[in-house]
């Protein structure tokens, strides 16, 4: 590890993903705690992981996954180690960009932490509408954050963007744990919403995607999951459609939209994931919404979803 002066490192305390986090890396996206009075559930620190990389990662192999260890390497950025759901160690390369490092810490690293702690992470956005929580899942570019933003403009609150942590009550009812108050939107979506992006901060190496703070429209308490919406974009489609997913079809859908699902085999958690998916599939409805790509359809999607799922929103 190079480029880090240990004498200047100070720890900050945060609350995100339902976890108390002590971090040597500043994470301005998260809600900061003035002081940490609780047990630090996750500790993020700098360390030298070069020897670990040489030991566990062969040439052209960027991930090493076991039950209690997730080690991965992003060239010219950093080596990351996630252990036992409690610790993230970052070994940055010299001149690595701090924004890019944080993307991996709050994304892939936290996804691994959640899996190690047996918390189901879905890939998408989660919103609170009229006291009910909905998860919007889909592949990259499907428009998950855009649809969530359209709902937020109608009075909904954000619970999570990108990684959706799900836990279960004693009765096996799924509950969404809030992540942190920020969205990421492509410039096409910002233009569709008529939002000026000249003063927004672009995501590193993605000049056409921007971070959007939603501090005043963020709900920071766990909420029972009321439904899941799979968003699919169809190039040849002319109109929006919404269908209910059959219960047996829900298992592959939930696997497909689990965040970093390729971790499951290495962590020996395939059976656990199936069990958690069964709880979700039996408790909440899952819909598939197909949208055309020929026009900006976010507001039309909101209207259709509200009418079919009988969701009430408040115009702002």
Give the arrangement of secondary structure elements.
Elements: E1 12-16, E2 19-23, E3 31-33, E4 42-46, H1 50-56, E5 63-65, E6 69-74, E7 78-83, E8 87-92, H2 98-116, E9 120-129, E10 132-137, H3 144-153, E11 157-168, E12 174-176, E13 182-186, H4 187-192, E14 201-203, E15 206-213, E16 223-234, E17 241-244, H5 250-256, H6 263-266, H7 270-283, E18 286-292, H8 298-309
Parallel strand pairs: 2-4, 4-8, 10-16, 16-18
Antiparallel strand pairs: 1-2, 1-3, 5-6, 6-7, 7-8, 9-10, 9-11, 11-12, 12-16, 13-15, 14-15, 17-18
Task: Offer a concise description of the structure.
The protein is of the alpha+beta class. It is built from 8 helices and 18 strands.
Write a structural description.
By secondary structure, this protein is of the alpha+beta class. The chain contains eight helices and 18 strands. The strands form three sheets. Strands 3-1-2-4-8-7-6-5 form an eight-stranded mixed beta sheet, with helices on both faces. It has a five-stranded mixed β-barrel with strand order 9-10-16-12-11. A three-stranded antiparallel beta sheet has the order 13-15-14. A hairpin with a 2-residue loop joins strand 9 and strand 10. Helix 3 crosses helix 8 and helix 5 crosses helix 7. The longest helix has 19 residues. The chain is globular.
Descriptors:
18 strands, 5-stranded mixed beta barrel, 25% helix, disordered C terminus, 316 residues, alpha+beta, 8-stranded mixed beta sheet
Q: Describe the sheet with the most strands.
A: 8 strands, mixed
* Alpha-carbon distance between the two ends: 49 Å
Instruction: Give the strand order, joined by hyphens, for the main sheet.
Output: 3-1-2-4-8-7-6-5
Q: Fraction of residues in helices?
A: 25-40%
Total count of helical runs of at least 4 residues: 8
Gross morphology: globular
Low confidence ranges: 312-316
Radius of gyration: 20 Å
SS content category:
alpha+beta
How much of the sequence lies in strands comes to 25-35%
Order of helices and strands: EEEEHEEEEHEEHEEEHEEEEHHHEH
Strand runs, count: 18
Mean pLDDT: 91
């Amino acid at each position: 590890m190079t480029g880090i002066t240990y004498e200047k490192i100070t720890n900050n305390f945060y609350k995100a993903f339902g976890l108390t986090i002590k971090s040597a890396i500043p994470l301005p996206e998260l809600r900061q705690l003035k002081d940490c009075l609780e047990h630090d559930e996750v500790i993020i620190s700098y360390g030298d992981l070069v020897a670990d990389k040489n030991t566990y990662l062969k040439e052209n192999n960027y991930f090493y996954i076991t039950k209690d260890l997730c080690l991965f390497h992003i060239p010219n950025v950093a080596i990351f180690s996630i252990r036992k759901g409690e610790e993230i160690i970052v070994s940055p390369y010299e001149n690595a960009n701090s924004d890019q490092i944080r993307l991996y810490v709050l994304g892939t690293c936290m996804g691994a932490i959640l899996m190690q702690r047996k918390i189901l992470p879905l890939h998408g956005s989660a919103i609170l509408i009229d006291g009910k929580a909905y998860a919007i899942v889909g592949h990259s570019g499907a428009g998950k954050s855009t649809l969530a933003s359209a709902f937020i403009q109608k009075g909904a609150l954000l619970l999570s963007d990108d990684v959706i942590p799900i836990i279960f009550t004693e009765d096996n009812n799924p509950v969404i744990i809030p992540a942190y108050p920020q969205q990421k939107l492509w410039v096409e979506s910002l233009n569709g919403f008529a939002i000026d992006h000249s003063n927004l901060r672009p995501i590193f190496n993605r000049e056409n995607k921007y971070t959007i703070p939603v501090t005043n429209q963020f709900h920071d308490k766990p909420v029972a999951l009321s439904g899941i919406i799979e968003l699919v974009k169809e190039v040849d489609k002319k109109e929006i459609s919404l269908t209910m997913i059959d219960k047996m079809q829900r298992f592959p859908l939930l696997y497909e939209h689990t965040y970093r699902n390729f971790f499951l085999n290495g962590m020996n958690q395939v059976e656990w994931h199936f069990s958690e998916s069964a709880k979700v599939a039996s408790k909440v409805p899952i819909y598939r919404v197909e949208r055309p790509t020929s026009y900006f359809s976010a507001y039309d999607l909101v209207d259709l979803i509200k009418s079919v799922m009988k969701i009430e929103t408040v115009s702002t």
